[in-house]
Specification:
By secondary structure, the protein is mostly helical. It has a single domain, classed as Cytochrome Bc1 Complex, Chain D, domain 2. The protein starts with 6 loop residues before the first helix and ends in a 6-residue tail after the last helix. The mean pLDDT is 86. Pfam families: DUF3243 (PF11588).
């Protein structure tokens, strides 16, 4: 089963990666830029696996670049301290 198949697993996965990045010294701007790049890749290359991902994909597809950055930043906030550690 892919982490993309289940919304909670996806949030846990992102939270874990965020924790790892922060422990390795990544600053907030770098984290947010990386989140934007991942969101852009997922929107273009990966079919949503659940309702939550479909909503994010639909929002991403109609958003301006600034709005997409805001979506990515909100995803970072959503998963902060939400990892499985």
């Amino acid at each position: 089963m892919s982490v993309l198949d289940n919304w909670q697993q996806w949030k846990d996965f992102l939270g874990d990666r965020l924790d790892q990045g922060q422990q390795q010294g990544m600053n907030k701007e770098t984290v947010n830029n990386l989140a934007y790049q991942i969101g852009d890749y997922l929107a273009k290359q990966v079919e949503p696996k659940n309702e939550q991902e479909r909503i994010l994909s639909d929002l991403w597809s109609v958003a301006s670049k600034d709005e997409q950055q805001a979506i990515a930043n909100m995803m970072v906030k959503l998963v902060e301290d939400n990892g499985t550690h």
